[in-house]
Design brief:
192 residues, mainly beta, 9 strands, 61% strand, elongated
Amino acid sequence: EKAQVQIGSVTATANTSNVDGADVPVLPLVDINTSATAVGNNQNIASNTATFLNDGQFTYGAASLANTAISPEDLADAASALFDIDNSHLAFGLGVVAGEALDIITPATITASSTTSGVTSTNSNIHNEATAVANNTNVNVDSNLLIGDLTQVAVANVSAGATLTGVTTSLGEIGNHATAVGNNVNINVGSP
């Protein structure tokens, strides 16, 4: 049994500016990549045998306990008793959500920002991207058996911004992408 808890803010920033590639030979194409990634909790699990997964990921800001004696754990205990919950991750997740509703817990801030500007090139592929994720889980099980209980809770403001300005290329391609995700799970089960 494992739990991941992210408390507070996560920020990623990437900038590329004032690149003059006019004198670069035409071939091969040159890649100019600017990328920013901010993640609260991330895990990758790979197994080639039967897998039993009992897991929790929680992302939230600070617990403001100055005016109260209640903690997220106290709220989890109350949720567990009130709803007869025997799952510690679910109880803790409900405690976090209740804490946010009662202004005991503040949202986390997860921000990814990527900027590419002032790039002049005749032969470049120019890619600019930003990705922000609160909780991410990837599970790859080569056998045909996975038994899992996964809880993800994000009390967070998740944002991603990608800015592309003053960029030119004659032969290459230009890409600009921003992605923001609260909770993400990818599960693959099967024979290799």
